[in-house]
Design brief:
Helices cover about 75% and strands about 0% of the residues. Helix 1 packs parallel to helix 5, helix 3 packs across helix 4 and helix 5 packs antiparallel against helix 6. With about 210 residues, it is mainly alpha-helical. A two-stranded antiparallel ribbon has the order 1-2. It starts with a helix and ends in a 7-residue tail after the last helix. It has one domain.
């Protein structure tokens, strides 16, 4: 039985929207990994400086946590957007397009079956986000050790010491903010699944 013109137009519109949303999903995934790579590069640079023998040089490690917090905020926003896109595709588009159902399959699949070559994808995703938090903590530890060493040797003048204390307070706030971002992402992911297909953006379109 041939579909009516109205149904055909509905299928074509849903298919076009599906393809555009899959493109956005892939772009968001790429952005997320770029942010993670930027975090690793920045942390390597600042933590490397934080291992310098001179306390004044190690003091620069305190500049990293606020930068990491900005990256983590964008990363968390990209993750939230992926979740919204995945839910929309699953609930609004897949029921209207014959032969498409990956997001629905992933959403209803038992947790024990949702395992990739890296282990459960949900856990892996949160481990990736924890990179921001762990590198922040390391930078704060190195920066605080530099401040302590410089204070014991009178390596800081009063203005530098005041700046160090301000940066430490700002760093603690940045670490707490990132911990909140990651906790928020985890809580929302427990209420709604971002499928493994959204990770790769590779579901085929069947006509």
């Amino acid at each position: 039985m041939e579909p009516t013109e109205g149904k055909r137009a509905t299928w074509m519109g849903a298919e076009a929207e599906y393809r555009e949303l899959r493109k956005e999903i892939v772009a968001r995934i790429q952005l997320r990994y770029q942010l993670l790579g930027g975090c690793i590069l920045l942390s390597a640079a600042f933590l490397g400086v934080g291992l310098h023998p001179d306390p004044k040089a190690r003091f620069a490690a305190l500049l990293y946590p606020p930068l990491a917090a900005c990256l983590a905020f964008v990363w968390a926003h990209a993750q939230a957007r992926l979740r919204e896109l995945s839910k929309y595709v699953r609930t609004h588009l897949e029921p209207r397009i014959p032969g498409v159902g990956w997001e629905t399959y992933e959403y209803h699949r038992p947790p024990r079956e949702s395992v990739t070559e890296l282990g459960e994808w949900s856990r892996a995703r949160h481990c990736y986000g924890a990179v921001f938090l762990l590198t922040q903590v390391l930078a704060v530890v190195l920066g605080c050790s530099a401040v302590v060493d410089a204070s014991m040797t009178d390596g800081f003048n009063p203005s530098m010491r005041y700046l160090a204390y301000v940066l430490i307070v700002l760093d603690v706030f940045a670490v707490c903010a990132v911990a909140w971002f990651l906790g928020s992402v985890r809580r929302r992911d427990q209420r709604g699944t971002v499928s493994f297909g959204s990770r790769h953006g590779c579901q085929p379109m069947h006509r």
